[in-house]
Amino acid sequence: MGFSLSPLAQQNGFRMEAFDTVGSTNAVALERAQAGDPGRLWVVSKKQESGRGRRGRAWATSHGNLAASLLLTGTFELKTAATLGFVAGLSLADALDAVCPQGAVSLGVDGIGSSVSDLRVELKWPNDLLANKAKLAGILLESTHLPDGRFAVVVGIGVNVVAYPEDVPYPATSLKQLGAACDAETLFLALSDAWQENSRIWDEGRGLAEIRKRWLKRAAGIGSEVAVRVDGSVLRGIFETIDEDCRFVIRDNDGERVKIAAGDVHFGAVASASAG
Prior knowledge:
By secondary structure, this protein is an alpha+beta fold. It has 2 domains: 7-216, BirA Bifunctional Protein, domain 2 (2-Layer Sandwich), CATH 3.30.930.10; 221-274, SH3 type barrels (Roll), CATH 2.30.30. Helix content is 26%, strand content 32%. The chain contains 7 helices and 16 strands. The protein has helices spanning 7-11, 25-34, 78-81, 84-99, 184-202, 208-217, 268-274; strands spanning 15-19, 41-45, 51-52, 58-59, 66-74, 105-107, 113-115, 121-124, 128-131, 134-145, 151-159, 225-230, 233-242, 248-252, 257-260, 264-267. It has a 7-stranded mixed beta sheet, sandwiched between helices. The protein has a 5-stranded antiparallel beta sheet with strand order 15-14-13-12-16, covered by helices on one side. The protein starts with 6 loop residues before the first helix and ends with a helix. Keywords: ATP-binding, Biotin, Ligase, Nucleotide-binding.
């Protein structure tokens, strides 16, 4: 089975460029934008060799994982475009709900079985997706100005379908590890479909309040202790919510309510071990 777009995505004018192996789907999408592509283009691959994560971190994927980048062009504000990460997270979570089979069993390293029907998918601010508290996917937004005065934004989505990195300072997992019999092509088909509904609700930022409401229903760590690394310093407190602009809101140790626009978030034991 090869990659394909959902019928609804095709009806709405979305296109796709698929690779078996690629350096970076985000880089290809940005190149297409500079070459005059009108947008609504998905660039997808089952292997990414030189991808990028947040803050310039390397993000390579094993063959069989999903790397998908969506190129969009427009005139809306960059601040508004930044909230597309929340649209992407919701769309991926909805896609996983659609394709993960119920009742499949995975045996962990301790020999204990876990059922996919018990899978807990959560969204971790700003742009990660967790499955049973371990990182399953990451999202990276990049943008560029175009010669005609518009700008392009690329929504990059990387999912650990068959393998996950083991040399990272946080728990990670893959769909295979969780017992889900789903391949990259099946997941992308569902993702391209789920994007249609969530982007319709988002409506170039006009529906952000509803996106925020939906995101909070899937949010990881609300009410728990958190440490946020911001520009070399660490803020600690309790994660309360995200505000109307999707900023991270914590109640710090002095009882003050702090709003954070960008930072690395760590919960619980990982907060103590990794963010200090």
